[in-house]
Design the sequence.
């Protein structure tokens, strides 16, 4: 019986799978380690959001528009557009599919369709507008919102794996791997990964209690509605669904922060 991967290997697998940074040059985890990458997804978000937030913070004093575009581009480069690919496939599948089988077939197709293109354009435009608005008010506010929103939205999106079965067979998955459901200690750690940056945001920005509740409830409600919709349509999740839920719930945080703070 093969030895279960330790926590270091599992975390390392998450950084390898969910970014395009060359972590694999330092350590190659076993295949089993990749079953738990979603448990450490928000932790990876600490890195990606810190990079994109720092880019925006340091460039914004010179040019806010370039700072916003650079922040978006740098995260896409760091993640290899993994989540954006999922969002495009999600829009194509659920926009053009009329049955469970058709939706899954479209999402697995490597070609992008009209729904995917329009969905990505709308997503980038809204994201850019929100970040521009926040950065115009305060580069510090924008950077800290990025650092809070990314891990928090990933924590919410990870709930899909905990609550739903996988919609395909393992051999039919794009990654050829099915994520495991976290046990209680790993689940608590997952929650901490998403909530600690939120605590930092509250400490440094000092929003009032009502603002905090709205910032938390809006993405949580959207995540729940997306989960219900996905389950109704395909009776389970796919990796594309995870990516789409993450980006859409994260976007809802930026929209809420833009109108609220």
Sequence:
């Amino acid at each position: 019986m093969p030895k279960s991967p330790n926590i270091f290997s599992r975390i390392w697998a998450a950084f390898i799978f969910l970014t395009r940074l060359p972590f694999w040059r330092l350590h190659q985890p076993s295949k089993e380690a990749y079953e738990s990458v979603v448990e450490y997804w928000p932790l990876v978000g600490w890195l990606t959001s810190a990079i994109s937030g720092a880019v925006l913070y340091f460039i914004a004093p010179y040019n806010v528009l370039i700072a916003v575009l650079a922040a978006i581009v740098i995260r896409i480069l760091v993640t290899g557009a993994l989540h954006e690919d999922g969002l495009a496939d999600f829009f194509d599948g659920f926009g053009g599919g009329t049955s469970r089988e058709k939706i899954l077939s479209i999402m697995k197709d490597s070609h992008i369709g009209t729904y995917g293109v329009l969905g990505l354009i709308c997503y980038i435009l809204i994201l850019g507008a929100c970040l521009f608005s926040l950065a115009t008010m305060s580069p510090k506010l924008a950077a800290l919102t990025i650092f809070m929103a990314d891990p928090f939205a990933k924590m919410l999106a990870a709930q899909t794996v905990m609550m739903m079965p996988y919609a395909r067979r393992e051999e039919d998955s794009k990654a050829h791997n099915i994520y495991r459901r976290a046990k209680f200690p790993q689940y608590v750690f997952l929650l901490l990964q998403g909530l600690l940056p939120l605590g930092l945001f509250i400490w440094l920005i000092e929003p009032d209690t009502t603002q905090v509740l709205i910032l938390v409830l809006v993405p949580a409600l959207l995540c729940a509605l997306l989960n219900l919709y996905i389950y109704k349509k395909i009776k389970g999740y796919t990796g594309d669904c995870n990516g789409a839920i993450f980006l859409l719930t994260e976007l809802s945080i930026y929209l809420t922060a833009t109108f609220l703070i």
Observations:
- The chain is about 75% helix and 0% strand.
- Residues 36-168+180-260 form one domain.
